[in-house]
């Protein structure tokens, strides 16, 4: 499933909220992530293809700007998604193969998470912005991409009162749904550079994705 980079915009969730207050909220969320050098969270990933059962995976995500990230899955155990800032590797032990691709070519895959890489810009990417109170507190934001050439029709963000983004949900034009929930967020933790290096395990087939 290919999804392109995205950011979000918010409307006030209270009818009496002034535009100035909204802009302050947007800037606060942008500042939280765009200024962070490293980030670490626990994640749960849920993907529902059209007409098929939902698949749920989980693990720990570590990021170090610019462009370095490590999705370390505990379910399924051993699955790995690693970027060194230039290239990205996807390793699935049960397939006994690793796929390599250019980071720029892979941005579609994790695009709604542009905020994690310090590329959050609310006003630039979205239109038809709406926000309502979120059951978990804070705001539930719904937006559409400004361009119609992208393969998704809607993105939703759950923003907590402390300006953390707790959940991202993307609906594709094919009605597929990709949803991430984040917990235990740490901003600017110390991360070993070795986390963002990938070595092909012995006996594992390496496949380079075509451009």
Quick gist of this model?
The chain is 11% helix and 45% strand. It is mainly beta.
Written account of the structure:
- By secondary structure, the protein is mainly beta.
- The two termini are 16 Å apart.
- A twelve-stranded mixed β-sheet has the order 7-8-9-10-11-1-2-3-4-5-6-12.
- It contains three helices and twelve strands; from the N terminus they run H-E-E-E-E-E-E-H-H-E-E-E-E-E-E.
- It has a single domain (19-48, 59-187), classed as Lipoprotein localisation LolA/LolB/LppX (outer membrane lipoprotein receptor (LolB), chain A).
Task: Give keywords.
single chain; 211 residues; mainly beta; outer membrane lipoprotein receptor (LolB), chain A; twelve-stranded mixed beta sheet; 3 helices; globular; disordered N terminus
Task: Describe how the helices and strands are arranged.
Elements: H1 19-34, E1 38-48, E2 55-64, E3 68-75, E4 77-84, E5 87-92, E6 97-102, H2 103-106, H3 122-125, E7 126-133, E8 139-145, E9 152-159, E10 165-172, E11 177-187, E12 205-208
Parallel strand pairs: 6-12
Antiparallel strand pairs: 1-2, 1-11, 2-3, 3-4, 4-5, 5-6, 7-8, 8-9, 9-10, 10-11
Report the strand count: 12
Per CATH, the class reads Mainly Beta
Name the helix and strand elements from N-terminus to C-terminus, one letter apiece: HEEEEEEHHEEEEEE
How much helical structure, as a percent, in the residues?
A: 10-25%
Q: What would you call the quaternary organization?
A: single chain
Distance between the termini: 16 Å
Number of separate domains: 1
Largest sheet: 12 strands, mixed
**What name is given to the CATH topology?**
outer membrane lipoprotein receptor (LolB), chain A
Question: What is the count of DSSP helices, taking H or I runs of 4+ residues?
Answer: 3
Mean pLDDT: 81
Rg from alpha-carbon coordinates: 17 Å
Catalogue the unreliable spans: 1-20
Q: In CATH terms, what is the architecture?
A: Clam
CATH level 4 superfamily: Lipoprotein localisation LolA/LolB/LppX
Note the beta-strand portion: over 45%
- Biggest sheet, spatial arrangement of strands: 7-8-9-10-11-1-2-3-4-5-6-12
Structural class of the helices, strands and pairings?
A: mainly beta
